[in-house]
Specification:
This protein is α+β, with helices and mostly antiparallel strands. The chain has 6 helices and 6 strands; from the N terminus they run ββαββββααααα. The protein folds into 2 domains: 1-108, Phosphoribosyl-AMP cyclohydrolase (Ubiquitin-like (UB roll)), CATH 3.10.20; 112-208, Helix Hairpins, CATH 1.10.287.
Length: 209
């Protein structure tokens, strides 16, 4: 067996998953010897499904994987804490975490900041894995010039869309779409340069003081 966890009589150990950056508790699942081995081999969280009696990787269909930052045991070795870097929302509802206040409905839609962080994590995941069919990976492979050209191109398209939109006429779908394109390509450029999104947030916070 993988050294460390004290598996129960079913060969399982409860695993609490925590966002390593925000400290938020994301989900509770179960691991066994097979899932631990797969997690350690791939660097992505794998679990054991008690209902389906099978090994599964978080994000294997959605792409919202959990990259391992570190694994920790409690003092009795019968519970595991997995600190991770999530590549997207963890809950099946679309929320960032499976946990919420008792008796309170949680909106599935996260805040704007939450969406940018999820997008950033997805970009980081693509940067690490470089899947062959990924547009993000292709941009990153093109280097700073390719990423920079797209930022300039999308910013120009946003300007043209904004000029075409009459002020006071309500939301303009094209302006919204072009703004989203600018934000996405800007994050890709940051990833290509190895600049963390948190650094931009810190600069904005500093300017707000």
């Amino acid at each position: 067996m993988i050294p460390g966890p004290a598996y129960d009589d079913r060969g399982l150990v409860p695993t609490v998953v925590q966002d390593a950056h925000t400290g938020d508790v994301l989900m509770l699942a179960y691991a066994n010897e097979a899932s631990m081995a797969a997690t350690l081999e791939t660097g992505l969280m794998h679990f054991w499904s008690r209902s389906r009696n099978t090994l599964w990787m978080k994000g294997e269909t959605s792409g919202n994987t959990l990259a391992v930052v570190d694994l920790r045991l409690d003092c009795d070795s019968d519970a595991l804490l997995a600190r991770v870097d999530p590549a997207g929302p963890v809950c099946h509802t679309g929320a960032a975490t499976c946990f919420g206040p008792i008796g309170e409905a949680r909106p599935a839609e996260p805040s704007v900041g939450g969406e940018l962080h999820r997008l950033w994590r997805t970009i980081q995941s693509r940067a690490a894995a470089r899947p062959a069919d990924s547009y993000t990976a292709a941009l990153l492979d093109g280097g700073v010039d390719a990423c920079g050209r797209k930022v300039t191109e999308e910013a120009t398209e946003l300007l043209l869309a904004a000029k075409d939109h009459a002020v006071g006429s309500g939301p303009a779908k094209r302006v919204v779409e072009e703004a989203a394109d600018v934000m996405y390509h800007l994050l890709v450029l940051l990833a290509e340069r190895g600049i963390p999104f948190d650094a931009v947030e810190e600069e904005l916070a500093h300017r707000a003081d």
